[in-house]
Prior knowledge:
The structure is a single chain. The chain folds into 2 domains: 2-166, Peroxisomal Thiolase, Chain A, domain 1, CATH 3.40.47.10; 170-314, Thiolase/Chalcone synthase (Peroxisomal Thiolase, Chain A, domain 1, 3-Layer(aba) Sandwich), CATH 3.40.47.10. Helix content is 32%, strand content 25%. The chain has helices at 17-21, 28-35, 48-63, 87-95, 110-123, 207-229, 246-256, 267-270, 277-287, and strands spanning 2-9, 13-16, 39-42, 72-76, 100-104, 130-136, 156-163, 168-175, 182-185, 201-205, 238-241, 296-303, 307-314. The strands form 4 sheets. A 5-stranded mixed beta sheet has the order 1-7-6-4-5, sandwiched between helices. Helix 3 packs across helix 4 and helix 6 (207-229) crosses helix 7 (246-256). The chain is globular. The N and C termini lie close together (10 Å). The site of coenzyme A has 19 residues, from helix 2 and helix 6.
Amino acid sequence: MKIIGTGSALPSLRVTNHDLEGFLDTSDEWITERTGIKERRLLSTETLYDLAEEAAKKALQSAGIGPEQLDFIICSNVANRFITPGMNCILQGSIGATCAGLDINVACAGFVNAMMLADSMMQAGRASHILIVCAEEPTKYCNWDERDTSILFGDGAAAVVLGPGNGFKAVQMSMISNKDVLYYERCMEKTPFEKNRVEGQPLVMKGRELFRVAVSQSAKDIKIVLEKAGIQPSDVTYYLMHQANKRIIEGIRAILNEPEEKFPTNIENYGNTSSASIPILLDEMLHANRIHAGDTLLMSAFGAGFVSAACVLQWE
Ligand code: COA
């Protein structure tokens, strides 16, 4: 399997840290120093489905294939307006594809998990062209009256088209069940029978604990996946990390003792876009002509669960 096309789509509304100072007890200085974020994009006039469609169409165009050539669609999403049907069904119609698909929710680690699924399907001979779309609107499950989570997130979508090849070298997926570090509890409809009804609540996060687990578990995943791929940290051209916090990325970088220039970021412009963050970064780097044939890319992500995953790709 290899990536043969990429695309991304972001909301047009830019919201800076200074904009947030207007209604939250926070400051540009605090957010920049603790997270590296300067601004984020927020859905205002568009829908998440507009972004997913735009990213998918761009990825198909860059792959040079039509939607009818797709054998499968995998969508990664934590939450959106439609609980059912799945995002993949709605997207199939809007891009004009005819194949089947499924949605996955592996929080911010969704892209790496989707890559693992796609590779398994290709190896089993079940598909030769797969579309992955990561589309996320985490700003819609934060409490905007509070400063603890709303400053961290941004909305966005990105897609990749996968085709036959040998670029996918190794993957590691990890999970430590610990719901309490990060969760969003949605309110369901009332029934006349349910006892002890639980009302929903916006995203709850234990930031400090999450920070520590994210650094240690991601570093562990990376060491394991490097070993599986039979390479050293120095063999990696770029580490494409989940863009959750610049200090988390820096913590992982310090453990690996690798140079800063190998850890590209765009968190300053978009905040944490959940599972879309790595494919958005990948698409931007390709557009900037920063990735070339033969480069080794290591992708690593973590999120609510607690889940984490890493994979190694050789760019073909
Ligand atoms: N603006 C200004 N001050 C804030 C603030 C904000 N947005 N949020 C918290 N503070 C204050 C706190 O009230 C606290 O004040 P005090 O010292 O007077 O009690 C102080 O800043 C430190 O808060 P703390 O939560 O300990 O800060 P931190 O250094 O741990 O940084 C995070 C907070 C959220 C940036 C950091 O813990 C983090 O990034 N964690 C991981 C989050 C993440 O990645 N989530 C997504 C995973 S996919």
